[in-house]
Amino acid sequence: MQRTIIHFDLDTFFVSCERRLDSRLIGKPVIVGGTGDRGVVSASSYEARTFGVHSAMPMKMARQLCPDAVYIRGNAGTYSKMSREVTEILQESLPVVEKASVDEFYGDLTGMDKFFGCYRFSKELRQRIMNETGLPISFGMSPNKTVSKVATGEAKPNNEIKVDAGYEKIFLAPLSIKKIPSVGQKTFVQFCNLGVRTVDLVQQMPLEMMEAVFGKSGRIIWERCNGIDNSPIVPYHERKSISSERTYGQDTTDITKLRTTISAMAENLAFQLRRGNKLTSIVTVKVRYSDFQTYSKQMRVPYTSADHTLIPKVMELFHKLHNRRMLIRLVGVRYSGLTEGHYQIDLFENTNKTVNLYKAMDIIRDRYGDHSIRRANTIGEGSRTIGNQGNPFNGEPPILLAHRHQ
């Protein structure tokens, strides 16, 4: 049976969320990301892109290119909530949905042509999403994930494209090789050195040559350029770790600020574990010095999601790492080795009061935000950019916002 795969992508998602909250931003150049000199652009509106602004660009450069834009720090919790609204509509409507990122989805409509016209059904679904959420969205439809994703890119902004079976190569042929998934900047430079810039030239190259030049990835790129992709729709991705990092606006040796940052990240990540019904068994701390030398240490711990257990372990690792008399550029915390489970009482250390305290604190955080209640030692200048991350355990990748890099 011929497959029918649809790829949905929310247009300039972070910007669209901000415009939904404030309609005065519609039609204006809007840039979401870090507001400090070391911040980077997380998203930019199409109006800002006409000035050359794009995601991952240093915010300092964006300000030079588009000084009159509206600059917004962004809120990951808000974006996660709006993303879930779209996810729920898709899960309700499609037999199989894969959430590739906070603003990107795949669906498998194979066999639905017997009962519905897949393209007509998808157009109606797209219209429903826009009507119910107020967020613009585009889609591409084809027999596989690669062609559908590329088609969505060509459809943007706020449109749709269908590529019929048998026309995949024809559709891809005139496009830039950069539009093929898995072709990054480094690979694109290699293609340019070969005199190859468009997909049609790759389609004409022997598979053996592609493998000789690019190794194992050569076959993957060649197949994708020829419209071949048998990868399945994966409805759920199990998270293996959860992490947070902070890049300081100015490198620092302020030990109070460093401890505050580390403690705040450890506490917030512990809350994320409990909210996702997860326990961690491995704690890792990372430190990057001003010379960009990066060091990390980790230790195993009994499965837990308790602040009072994890914070001391995190601080112990940090003090082992902090052994150079140099300015520090970045610190990070990661919990890994995750498993399903609720925080349990330790018969030798805790009481029922401890568990009830965590439950009460988490209820307040869920209702009023991650930082509505905190430990005293996590309050201070060092914790000011540890943002609301939403729930990273709802079957979707976490949202990474540039506002951490202040």
List the helices and strands and how they pair.
Elements: E1 5-10, H1 13-21, E2 30-33, E3 41-44, H2 46-49, H3 59-65, E4 70-72, H4 76-93, E5 96-101, E6 104-108, H5 118-133, E7 137-142, H6 145-155, E8 160-162, H7 168-172, H8 185-193, H9 199-204, H10 207-214, H11 216-225, E9 241-252, H12 255-275, E10 278-289, E11 294-304, H13 307-321, E12 328-336, E13 339-340, H14 352-368
Parallel strand pairs: 2-4, 7-8
Antiparallel strand pairs: 1-6, 1-7, 2-3, 5-6, 9-12, 10-11, 10-12, 10-13
Helix pairs in contact: 10-11, 12-13
**Global Rg:** 24 Å
- Count of separate DSSP helical elements: 14
Shape: globular
CATH architecture descriptor of the largest domain: 2-Layer Sandwich
Q: What value does the average pLDDT take? A: 85
Q: Report the span from N to C terminus.
A: 52 Å
Class based on secondary structure composition and strand pairing: alpha+beta
The CATH topology of the largest domain turns out to be Dna Ligase, domain 1
Q: Say which CATH homologous superfamily of the largest domain is assigned.
A: DNA polymerase, Y-family, little finger domain
Q: Numbering strands along the chain, what is their spatial order in the largest sheet?
A: 5-6-1-7-8
Largest sheet: 5 strands, mixed
What is the β-strand count? 13
